[in-house]
Amino acid sequence: MEAAEVARLRGDFPLLEREVNGHGIAYLDSGATAQKPVCVIDAEQDFLTRSNAAVHRGAHTLAVEATDAYETGRATLARFVGAGEDEIVWTKNATEALNVVAYGFANASAGLGGAQAARFRLGPEDSIVVTEMEHHANLVPWQQLAQRTGAQLRWLPLTDSGRLDLTDLTGIVDSSTKVLAFTHVSNVLGTITDTAPLTARAREVGALTVLDACQSVPHMPVDLRALDVDFAAFSGHKMLGPTGVGALYGRAELLNALPPVLTGGSMITSVTMEGAEFMPAPQRFEAGTQPVAQIVGLTAAVEYLEHIGMDRVAEHEREIGARMLDGVRRIEGVRLLGPEDPAARIGAVAFDVDGVHSHDVGQYLDAAGVAVRVGHHCAQPLHRRYGVTSSTRASAAVYTDTGDVDRFLQALAEVRGFFRVGA
């Protein structure tokens, strides 16, 4: 995108007009939460002021309008990620989506779900495989599942350059493996995973694949069916949408066989005092009152991204990421984490400043009006692998421009001098 178009897009995001500490804000924390365009804010407000009602529970006009908006959102999101409408389950975030799958396996392993759930049962003879680069949301649920079932937890390691080490893929993912869970894009390293060898190996051994797509769906074209994964999770707030809403993708036949985790109203066909029968997917996973206004906002966000075009979003962020990458590498005393090739990563750069804690780095940048993420980014094993306890991450979105990057790099270059490190 040309600079003029990016400038016009930035005008759609009211928060970018804010000043922080006397400076116009350079928002480089989109990997944590993206900012919202006016159309998303307006869509939520319009729903709440005109059509607010419970979905699938009434025949009055407002209930019909709310239900239509709810299901239109599902259809829109399904189209966006290459899924069927019956393959998208609403959740409150990606963490919940991943837990729905893991706890579904646990319920099946406890005997729930009948014969159709047999494929999800695990025991001491089975293994679960993750990777060393996972966000805790795609690691801890599998640790818990292994502890509940006695299954062995294994992981694919990382190379020094920040990529998955698949040297022993066939040894780690073997005939005992029932689940292979991996991230599409590392939330720390920015590394884009080549999913093909992972899904191919899973098919060879009969394992089910679970993809963390939180950092890919907002930043590049994603077709979940084409990726040939069985389940995937992503969240609304990282893709210009509201907080409090996310989605679980699952192949229809798997969702209809997986035992539900949350049970109660709106997900049953019949209930007696002795038991209950559940609805088909996706409703079987949508117990209780749903975040309808947030879904309306997310629908607007998806349509906004579609209007721009995800190919163009990816190209813009690749250029921004390359500028950040090149600038960080040039600053003395700053160690880059992850691949040095900008084509191998999204527009996110994590780094360690020699002699300065990441929290201090973040505070100095904030004083200059630059917002970044600091800490272990819910990925402690990854940081441990590279010998650091925490890092600083600058991450881009479609509204990020070269001015944001240049201000960030200028402030970062001043950090060690300010703290009198290396003088």
TrEMBL record:
Q: InterPro entries recorded for this chain?
A: Aminotrans_V_dom, Aminotrans_V_PyrdxlP_BS, Cys_dSase_SufS, PyrdxlP-dep_Trfase, PyrdxlP-dep_Trfase_major, PyrdxlP-dep_Trfase_small
Report the domain of life of the source organism. Answer: Bacteria
EC id: 2.8.1.7
**Which reaction(s) does the protein catalyse, per the Swiss-Prot or TrEMBL entry?**
(sulfur carrier)-H + L-cysteine = (sulfur carrier)-SH + L-alanine
Q: Gene3D superfamilies recorded for this chain?
A: Aspartate Aminotransferase, domain 1 (3.90.1150.10), Type I PLP-dependent aspartate aminotransferase-like (Major domain) (3.40.640.10)
Look up the record and name the cofactor or cofactors this protein needs.
pyridoxal 5'-phosphate
Q: Which residues form the Aminotransferase class V domain?
A: 27-408
Q: Does the entry feature the keyword Transferase, yes or no? A: yes
Signal sequence region: none
The record's keywords, sorted A to Z, are: Pyridoxal phosphate, Transferase
Q: Which residues cross the membrane?
A: none
- Pfam families named among the record's database cross-references: Aminotran_5 (PF00266)
- Summarize the protein's role: Catalyzes the removal of elemental sulfur and selenium atoms from L-cysteine, L-cystine, L-selenocysteine, and L-selenocystine to produce L-alanine.
Q: Which family does it belong to?
A: Belongs to the class-V pyridoxal-phosphate-dependent aminotransferase family. Csd subfamily.
What is the recorded name of this protein?
A: Cysteine desulfurase
Organism per entry: Brevibacterium salitolerans
